[in-house]
Amino acid sequence: MSGPVANGPGAQNSDAILDVSGLSQWFAVGGRFLGRRLQYVPAVDDVSFQLGRSEVLGLVGESGSGKSTLGRAALRLSWPTAGRILLEGQDITHLDRKRLRPLRPRMQMIFQDPFSSLNPRMTVGQIIGAPLAIHQRNLSRRERDEKVATALKAVGLSERNASRFPHEFSGGQRQRIGIARAIMMEPSLLVADEPVSALDVSVQAQIVNLLMEIRRKLGLSILFISHDLAVVGHVSDRVAVMYLGRIVEIAKTRSLFERPRHPYTEALFSAVPNADPTLRRERIILKGDLPSPLSPPKGCAFRTRCPYAVEACASSVPPLHSVGPDHLAACIRDDLALRPASQHMAPISSALDKGASRDQ
User: Fold this and answer.
1) Three-state DSSP class for 138?
2) CA 359 to chain centre
3) Dihedral, CA atoms, 131, 137, 141, 146, nearest 10 degrees?
4) Is residue 109 within 8 Å of 42, Cβ to Cβ?
5) Strand boundaries in the chain, DSSP class E
6) How does DSSP assign 68-115, residue by residue?
């Protein structure tokens, strides 16, 4: 695995698979007045990060924070409002559909819902073989079938399943089919959008372990989007925390879990359900709901819910700045001693130990 990737705003790294700089994704809402949209929702607002080769970057935040929108925008599944996206050094920000098509095999996505993401009228073989039909039309039927069989074996399914339909499979098996489709063209970048949140708990670990095994075999770089901090702590080399369309903290996994530097990160740790009755913890109850992105609070967007907010928090939007080695946070309260994940999450110590073994 490659070494740490610079992650400061505007930082450059020649080894980065994905380099996102100042990315914004705004959506028009409401009616029109004199031909113009009345309002725009900044789902993603001025986000910058890099993803290194064979690196897993976890992206966490509560619902509505912009995680999925960021993942789709990074793959150019939507037109970004502003910013720049580099895929292996190539600027793909403004490429049209025709010019993006040759690049699609290098960047793939695993969707959250394994039921709606598979066409119920196509067989498994047709679903997995669809990328080949689009990007490798010169293959014979036999060659295509062989590649489909290889992909099925790679995700732990029998090649005999190629003739069956999606409704004949369980949720976990369907997600394996989705993963097989995503890796068919051996991409260099994979965006996994909450790939286990719709699955039974007993199946989640199997899918996560499968993704990590494929990552090692193919050398994949993965943007792993999830709201499950225990899973993110297990699979990620670095973690980025999003709030209301912005990244408010990004650091190596161990650094972020052992010493969070943004109050929102501490609150996320506190909100994780805990099944250990022996672990006593003090819950951090945030005030109010997530503000509307149509009218975010002035200054720090988190200040209206933050237990540590001071008057200066309303003066300006705090930029991401260095608070430690490879650790950035968007908070003016650098004096805070926030509680680590271990005081809230019982399983995190084992997850970090497993993560540490990858870095050795």
Assistant:
1) coil
2) 20
3) -50
4) no
5) 16-33, 36-52, 56-60, 82-87, 90-91, 107-110, 189-193, 221-225, 238-243, 246-252, 321-324, 327-329
6) HHHHHHHTTSS--SEEEEEETTEE-TT--HHHHGGGGGGEEEE-S-TT
**How far is residue 42 CA from its own chain's centroid?**
18
Q: Give the C-alpha separation, 194 to 108, whole Å.
A: 14
Q: What values do phi and psi take at 223, rounded to 5?
A: -95, 105
Q: Which domains are delineated in the chain? A: 16-88+188-285+293-359 (3.40.50.300)
> Which residue type is seen at 132?
L
Question: Model confidence over 130-175: pLDDT tens digits?
Answer: 999 999 989 999 999 999 999 999 999 999 999 999 999 999 999 9
Supply 83's token pair: 């910013």
Order of strands across the sheet that contains 246-252: 107-110, 189-193, 221-225, 56-60, 238-243, 246-252, 327-329, 321-324
Residues 245 and 229: their CA atoms lie apart, in Å, by: 19
Report which of 281, 280, 251, 247 is spatially closest to residue 264, judged by C-alpha positions: 247
**How far is C-alpha 241 from the chain's CA centre?**
10
pTM exceeds 0.90 for this model: no
Query: pLDDT, tens digit, for every residue of 326-347?
Result: 999 999 999 999 999 888 775 5
139, 140, 146, 151: CA torsion to nearest 10 = 30
DSSP one-letter code for 162: G
Structure-token pair, residue 210: 């499968």
Residue where the block lists tokens 């295509």: 144
Residues 163, 167, 173, 177, CA torsion sign: positive
8 A C-beta contact, residue 187 and residue 178: no
Q: Retrieve residue 259's tokens.
A: 């010493």
* Diameter over CA atoms, the chain: 69
Residue type, 318: P
- What SS3 class is residue 211? helix
